[in-house]
Amino acid sequence: MTASFHATRAHSFNAAAAQYAANRPSYPPALFDAVEDLSGRPLAGARVADIGAGTGIATALLHARGADVIAVEPGDGMAAQFRRSHPDIPILKGNGNTLPLATASLDFLTYAQAWHWTDPTLAVPEALRILRPGGALALWWNTDALDVPWIAEAAARIGRHFGIDTAAERKGAAADTQAADPTGRLDFGRRQVRWSRRVPIDTHLANIGSHSLFLIHGEETSAAFLAEERQHLMRTFPDGIVEEVYDVDLLVAINT
After folding, report:
1. Domains of the chain
2. Which residues are CB-neighbours of 218 under 8 A, at least 6 positions away?
3. pTM above threshold 0.85
4. pLDDT digits over 150-188, tens only?
5. Residue 89 and residue 63 in contact, taking contact as beta carbons nearer than 8 Å
6. In the chain, N or C: fewer CB atoms in 10 Å?
7. Cβ atoms of 151 and 144 closer than 8 Å
8. Residues 6+ away with beta carbon under 8 Å from 1
């Protein structure tokens, strides 16, 4: 993936922020239990920055766990949606490569679905600069459970349509600690949390359509695929309710 193509995909979400907020999956409570377990400290009362916060899906859950959380988001469209949805949570403009945060000021730095948009050779030193001694960097990704037959079949259809390896595309850095930290400065603990949600087919299709791969290919191309996908899904889920199954891949490293 070229740098310009990567940047195009990273910025594509701003035009679809409302769609993203309304249809993307959340995260299960067990994920935050695992963050606390691997970091050895509670989120309640902790000073946390959620980087690449987007519309605030993870930020709001951290806030609900009792964290003193601030969001950092580079995109104007996503930040505007964040402010509409979470007016009580502060948000700053910035990205993981150059964070607008003070040195040794935080207990947790979190990246939900966002670390792969950074340059880890810059983002790792920034994380270590900002975290207090003993503070934790937590990275996580909702990934499709490709051992579920209908999900594997749907992923294969997307792969054929766009000419990509969807298994590699969807796992990305989540499956590779070397990719997450090419500097070798972090010692990651790792967990995987499986969960699912039941949603109407329209929500599932809108979720799919909010991914950068669809956004950059334009509405006409995406709409044609999603209309055909609806027919596949109706055969699998005749009641119109889809059970999406996810594995959340979690990496946690402590600043020693």
Report:
1. 3-145+170-198+245-254 (3.40.50.150)
2. none
3. yes
4. 999 999 998 888 787 766 655 554 557 778 999 999 999
5. yes
6. N
7. yes
8. none
